[in-house]
Design a protein that fits this description.
The complex is a heterodimer.
Chain A: E1 4-7, E2 10-13, E3 19-25, E4 31-37, E5 43-51, E6 54-57, E7 64-66, E8 76-78, E9 87-94, E10 102-103, E11 107-111
Parallel strand pairs in A: 2-11
Antiparallel strand pairs in A: 1-3, 3-8, 4-5, 4-9, 5-6, 7-8, 9-10, 9-11
Chain B: E1 4-7, E2 10-14, E3 19-25, E4 33-38, E5 44-50, E6 56-58, E7 64-68, E8 73-78, E9 87-94, E10 102-104, E11 108-113
Parallel strand pairs in B: 2-11
Antiparallel strand pairs in B: 1-3, 3-8, 4-5, 4-9, 6-7, 7-8, 9-10, 9-11
The chains are: A mainly beta, B mainly beta.
Amino acid sequence: NAGVTQTPKFQVLKTGQSMTLQCAQDMNHEYMSWYRQDPGMGLRLIHYSVGAGITDQGEVPNGYNVSRSTTEDFPLRLLSAAPSQTSVYFCATAGRFGTEAFFGQGTRLTVV
Amino acid sequence: AQSVTQLGSHVSVSEGALVLLRCNYSSSVPPYLFWYVQYPNQGLQLLLKYTSAATLVKGINGFEAEFKKSETSFHLTKPSAHMSDAAEYFCAVSEGQGAQKLVFGQGTRLTINP
């Protein structure tokens, strides 16, 4: 089992470009979440989903869109990238009755 | 809303010395508390978790943490540091039931001196 797979691992964007960060899981977990990691700030929740068709905002949702059409996938979309979105992005999953989150390896995004 | 404070963004200890990383959460008791470790250029790995079953929690690699409600703390300890423990450590709490919404502390970078 691959667990939680994020693609790409690295990406450089120009300001104003759009892109989608992919997250796929084979753990059959109901819950999926996106976090961003910035130096000195830990990880902050962007968006999360408790099941297919259900998403909600986290602490820092502005500038990001999500949708969840299947249990396995939870893509994160940047519609118009800004330098402030330069960060490392992590996808995480958790079971409905689970007590821990499982993280992907991260996507390092640079916006110039 | 929950908040988590990790005291000390950098901690340096000698190999073989005690490791103590501090974590305090906001006043309401969260369902779960966690310590995660991140090695360079990698994702987060769970070290240990508190789920109200026992206040002293043992994790991987010789780490343990004690939940103290009166002090709103969940400090991480290891009796004897090893060079391989050098990494960044994050304390986190769950917000609501389940682990889909975690609130993280700022992180503590642990350096081990030979």
